[in-house]
Amino acid sequence: MHCEVARLEDETLDGRKVERFRLRAGSLALECLGLGCAITRLEVPDRNGRVDNVVLGYRDAQDYCGEDHREYFGAVVGRVANRIGSARFTLDGQEHRLPTNDGANHLHGGRCGFDRRAWTVVETGNGEAARVRFRRVSPDREEGYPGQLTATVTYTLTPDDTLRIDYVATTTETTIVNLTQHSYFNLAGEGSGNVLEHEIQIDADEVCAVDRGLIPTGELRRVGGTPFDLRDARPIASALLQTDPQLRIAGGFDHCFALRGWRDASRTPRPACTLADPRSGRRLRVDTDQPGVQFYTGNFLDGTAVGPTGHAYLRHSGVCLETQHFPDAPNRPEFPSIVLRAGERYATATVLRFDVLP
Q1: Residue 320 · residue 183 · CB < 8 Å
Q2: What domains are there in the chain, each with its CATH number?
Q3: Which of 48, 120, 226, 322 is the most buried (most CB within 10 A)?
Q4: 182 catalytic, yes or no?
Q5: What is the dihedral of CA 182, 282, 347, 16, to 10 degrees?
């Protein structure tokens, strides 16, 4: 089956020329930007063959770098995804202070993280798969992080309706790194309303409990008997309607689930979670080699961001399934380490498989 990569007309964003690409393979098509490696469009057929875009994005491409928009639609976030408590961490006995951009905490790499940086396309490929590879060099002390980090992100579409995301990084000195992809999914179609009737299933027996700043307390709470028991598929709405202090703190789900087997290091992506929309029949299955997945139900969407079809995104207009290490890992020695040293290679992969419900 034919796969192809097409370069689209460049965008001028914040005075910078930003490359745009469209990938096609199987029944999927993906569009992405060099700014933040942002996936701006992902076309997927439903059970009747109707194709819709299933990711949220901005109506105006300029909004991807606008100061008023920090939803991280479709972007790769880093150098460290998620939150670092009190915006500081200690590495080899030296304290490093980071910018605060989430109250007193540091979120998704800081005020100008990887999502707001221009990446260079270093490779594209047609043939058995459609592929685009982005690269950027993050200077030493960028957003407070030590070491010059060279990172690549590769999107690969294959004819079996699969999107594979590969992250690779090396550093000149000891640092921390935890990259993820921040797409918001609405399998009924972008702008179609909320996702409360979507069904979610997560292969996790434990979840990271958080404080009022959404920083992990260090407790890995058993999910049994709580709204966080998503081991069997259930509608998102049915879980959100339950009473639980953790849901009140976050205004919904904004928690990192510890995937089964997380204590056993693995380089092979394994099943992590499944999202399905009974109305359209679309289903997304996520495999990863990461220890956790942050399940976020779009709690902070408030209508200020407007999508490409003119719909304002309200609360729960989409959900994120961010495969990653646990939040605040540098300050939690009991969590898997995200330390990367010179001479080592950070390499991780997440695989998104699309099909329809039987």
Answers
A1: yes
A2: 4-356 (2.70.98.10)
A3: 322
A4: yes
A5: -40
> Edge to edge, what strands does the sheet with 346-356 contain?
120-125, 130-138, 149-158, 162-171, 346-356, 282-288, 270-276, 199-202, 234-235
Catalytic residue status for 334: no
The structure tokens 């043939």 sit at 127
Q: Of how many residues is the chain composed? A: 358
Q: Which one from 31, 71, 142, 182 is the annotated catalytic residue?
A: 182
Catalytic pick from 31, 71, 142, 322? 322
3-class DSSP string for the chain: CCCEEEEEEEEEECCEEEEEEEEEECCEEEEEECECCCEEEEEEECCCCCEEECECCCCCHHHHHCCCCCCCCCCEECCECCEEHHHEEEECCEEEECCCCECCEEECCCCCCHHHCECEEEEEECCCCEEEEEEEEECCCHHHCCCCEEEEEEEEEECCCEEEEEEEEEECCCEECECEECCEECCCCCCCCCCCCCEEEECEEEEEEECCCCCEEEEEEECCCCCCCCCCCEEHHHHHCCCCHHHHHHCCCEEEEEECCCCCCCCCCEEEEEEECCCCCEEEEEEECCCEEEEECCCCCCCCCECCCCCECCCCCCEEEEEECCCCHHHCCCCCCCEECCCCCEEEEEEEEEEECC
pLDDT digits (tens, 9 = 90+) for 49-84: 999 999 999 998 889 987 777 899 999 999 999 999
Cα–Cα nearest to 28, from 282, 343, 274, 268: 282
How far is residue 49's CA from residue 47's CA, in Å, rounded to a whole number? 6
CA distance 282 to 300: 25
CA quadruple 79, 80, 81, 86: dihedral sign: negative
